[in-house]
Amino acid sequence: MVLAALALPVLAGVTTAHAGTPGARDACGPARPGQVRCFAEIRTGTVRAATGTPAGYGPADLRSAYRLPVGGGDGRTVAIVDAGDDAGAEADLAVYRDHYGLPACTTGNGCFRKVNQAGRASPLPADAGWGVEISLDLDAVSAVCPDCHLLLVEADSPGVDDMAAAVDTAVALGATVVSNSYGARENGDAPRLAGSYRHAGVAMVVSSGDDGYGQPNVPAAYDSVVAVGGTTLTRTGDGWHETAWSGAGSGCSAWIAKPSWQHDPNCPGRMVADVAAVADPDTGLAVYDAHDGAGWTVVGGTSAAAPVVAGITALAGHPDRFATAAHLYGTAGLTDVVGGANGTDRADCGGDYQCTALPGYDGPTGNGTPDGLGAF
User: Fold this and answer.
1) What distance in Å separates the CA atoms of residue 186 and residue 189, rounded to the nearest whole number?
2) 109 forms bridges with which residues in the sheet?
3) How is residue 231 annotated by DSSP?
4) pLDDT tens-digit readout, 147-171
5) For residue range 26-48, what is the model confidence (pLDDT) as tens digits?
6) Domain spanning 24-370: which superfamily?
7) Can you tell me whether residue 192 is helix, strand or coil?
8) Which of 4, 11, 210, 344 lies at a 20 to 30 A Cα distance from 318?
9) Where are the domains of the chain?
C-alpha cells in the first residue's frame, strides 16, 4: 500500500547538504537524479604516522562497546553492495585484517569474492569513486564478524535500478545478510524497487542516511529492511556511552505504509530507523584504503552503522528472523539510547521522538544499539 503524501515535502533522489558533523566530508560526493549516494563520511584533519595505532575504533573497541564475542560467523556470507569497482579492495582489506590480527580473507582461501552486478568476476564496472565506502563496509563487517565470508557486489553505476539488480545478485549468490550503505530521498517511484530488498530468509540491513531528520531515504524506508540509524559512541571511565548522532537519518515515510509491528504514535507511515550503531565521524571507525589515497583514516556516517549491524546479524546466525525488522521491536538485548537529537533548523520536529533520542523507541536510534547477540 502507498500512502498519500504527508506534510513533509517529497524530494527527488538527489543529494542535499547533510546535517552531519563539522570537520567531515562525504566520501562519495553528490548523486545525480535517479541515483543513490553512499553515506560514508571521512573525518578530516586526522593525520597518522606510517606506523602505530590507527586513529578510530577497531575490532576490540566494537566488541567491547557492543559486548560481542571474539570470533564467530564461520561459513556465513555477508554481501556488501556498492557502486563501481574498487580495484584495491582485496589488498586494502588484507592490510586491515593483518593489522588487527584477524584471519586472512582472500579470493584464494574462498573467504572473499568480488563480482559485477550480473554475478560475474569480469568485466568489472568502472571506478565510481566509492572506494572509501567499499573499504569501510568490508572493514566494519570484518571487525565484528571476523570469520564471515565477504561477497562484494559492484553495481554498474549508483543508479537505483543498478543497485537493486546488484542486491538481487547478492542473494542469488548465497548471501544471507546484505549490507546497503546508501540511499536516496524517497519519492513516488520508491515502491517500484521494493521487491529487490525483500527476500525470504535474507536480512537486508540498510543505512538510514546522514541528513538528519526529514523525508526518509530508500531503501531504508522499505518495511522489509532493518534501517540502521546512528550514534556518537564515546568511551567513559566505566565503559561506553552513546547518544544520537546529529546527522543520523530519521523520518516518516510518505509512500510506504506503516507496518503492523510499528506503533509509534506520530507517524502514519513507515518510521525510520529500527536500530542504531556508531556513526559519528568524530567517533568513527579506523579504515584502510590505500588504493584511493586515504591510507589509514577515520570514517563514519550511517555507512559505518549498517555494516556493523550486518556483521552482528551474521554473527548471531539467524538472518531468517529479519524478513522485516519486527523481531527488533519489543525485544531485549538492545541498549536504549537516551540523549542527543538530529533535528535541524531546516527540519525541526520540536523535541518529538522522531528527531530526539528519548526513552523507548525514537527515530534517530530506533529501539537502541546492540547489547550482545540476544536481539539478533
Assistant:
1) 8
2) none
3) E
4) 999 999 999 999 999 999 999 999 9
5) 999 898 999 999 999 999 876 55
6) Peptidase S8/S53 domain (3.40.50.200)
7) helix
8) 210
9) 24-370
